[in-house]
Amino acid sequence: MKKTGQDEKVRINKYLAMCGIASRRAADQMVLEGRVIVNGGIADEPGLKVDPKRDEVVVDGRELAKPEARKVYILFNKPRNVITTSHDERDREQIFDFIDVRERVFPVGRLDRKTTGLLILTNDGTLAHRLMHPSSQVQKEYLATLDAKFPGSMLQKLTGGMRLKDTGEKVSPCRAKILDDGMSVLVSIHEGKNHQVRRMFSSLGFEVKRLDRVAYAGLTPGELRRGEWRYLSRNEVDRLHRLCGKD
């Protein structure tokens, strides 16, 4: 029996989960907060159903890429002063000025404008959500260049699960290595709090002058120069699924 258009609709929370935006419970809260717009109107009812193929859904001002039959996985080496949003009132350079693909993809997490380095982009919402969820413990490695030499005596404070000075928020323990010049520190975290690495160093009295994400989930730039991108191989995609606990 052929499905009708009504049968093909799904609850808005399931759709947001399919797009990798949030868990269903968190998506319900986003709807109640008025952050979700469907076909131009605010969706304020968690039970609302949408057509994944036809309806336009916008979250926090960003239109979502629809779940597609053909899954696309991209690795991008973001330059400095390029933003990760798809719309910008100030007409600044965006990552989609560099990436030209037919499918509508979105970044897995974000890097702030000044931070350079690796981004994964995909239309596989399920994998994106798993990569970003803290329970997956996916490691992200950053090279931070500081305004002064970082002493070895402070390494335990940095890695031991510190509290951020600006909010008192506690972050999980991480790994770090001071490089030879002492002005650069390699930091590996699995959380994704806003500006986390910069705020960690700021809490210890250091300013991050340059920040580069040099590895994400085991992926590294390789031969990718700033502003360049490539598709992930099948083996790389399979490894990301395994890393997130999906065989």
TrEMBL record:
Keyword Glycoprotein attached: no
Protein keywords: Isomerase, RNA-binding
Entries under PROSITE patterns matching the protein: PSI_RSU, S4
Single biological process term from Gene Ontology: enzyme-directed rRNA pseudouridine synthesis
Superkingdom in the source lineage: Bacteria
Domain RNA-binding S4: 10-70
InterPro entries to which the protein is assigned, alphabetical: PsdUridine_s_RsuA/RluB/E/F_cat, PsdUridine_synth_cat_dom_sf, PsdUridine_synth_RsuA/RluA, PsdUridine_synth_RsuA/RluB/E/F, PsdUridine_synth_RsuA/RluB_CS, RsuA_PseudoU_synthase, S4_RNA-bd, S4_RNA-bd_sf
Pfam families: PseudoU_synth_2, S4
Leading EC class: isomerase
The EC number(s) this enzyme carries: 5.4.99.-
Gene Ontology MF annotations: RNA binding; rRNA pseudouridine synthase activity
Similarity field: Belongs to the pseudouridine synthase RsuA family.
Protein name per Swiss-Prot or TrEMBL: Pseudouridine synthase
